[in-house]
Amino acid sequence: MMTPDAARLMFATFSSDLKVAMKGAAIRNEWRADTWTLQVGLVSDALLRGEDPEALEDAYSIILES
Amino acid sequence: MDSAVLVPSDIQIFPASTTGRLSAGQRIALDALRSALMAHGAEDNGVVTVSEDEWREAAYDAGIASIEATQSARRKAFLRARLDLVSSGKVSTDDGRYWIPSPSGTKRDKTPTESYNIPTNDTSFSPNDRHFGSGTSGTSGTKRDNVPSCPARQDGSEAGQSGTHPFRGVPHVPPAGAPMLEDDAQAIADDWCPE
What we know:
The structure holds two protein chains of two kinds. By secondary structure, chain A is an all-alpha fold. Chain A has one domain (4-59). Chain A has helices at residues 4-12, 16-29, 33-48, 53-61. In chain A, α1 packs across α3 (33-48) and α2 packs parallel to α4. The longest helix of chain A has 16 residues, at 33-48. Chain A is globular, with a radius of gyration of 11 Å. The termini of chain A are far apart. By secondary structure, chain B is of the alpha+beta class. Chain B has a domain at 24-110: Orthogonal Bundle (Arc Repressor Mutant, subunit A). Chain B has a four-stranded antiparallel β-sheet. In chain B, a hairpin with a 2-residue loop joins β1 and β2 (47-51). The longest helix of chain B is centred in the first third of the chain and has 17 residues, at 24-40. Chain B is extended. The relative contact order of chain B is 0.09. The chains are: A mainly alpha, B alpha+beta.
């Protein structure tokens, strides 16, 4: 798992829209600091695999019915 | 007993369908995963899994997006369905492999030491994950020596419930999974993303 510092550096490279989308998901779903680290690591992996950043933004904007 | 009386009841005998709350895309993706597991599933430690590519291709073949949809639209449709299914626990994932977890009360639940269904390092994720209270917390024993002390508060007061002694010297620690204040999540989010 990525270290928090590495995650912050990686997060800084994300597009502004993706950052905002992740922030919205974080607040809605009450992410803790370690959740942020994990999510950033997984998003980084997804981007490296060639996932569309816009698709990730959309995914983070989804509000699931509970 | 010579007779019986039938009384109307609201008790539901049969469980509700597990797919009742799924969107069309999620249902197609889940069915596609079943198909992919049957066609391409690889067994490891008693768990049959497929790769993301195998699942994605099955979902495309199953029509998760219309034929006229662009490649990008199809990818988005699959990504949304995948994240929803993983976040809702209907699909499990680890190291790029996907499978359908056994329902609760299965063998795994009765034999927790057996790696029957979900690898112990399961890192299923979703944007809808809250936090990870289980699996990453806990102690390796019950002895006091194994329990680290919480850092002192900034105001100098001792952590713990006021007016009581901490149990066996262990300061009060909120239970794992305890609800977090929305303000805390907001503050953490602002710290990560001031925008």
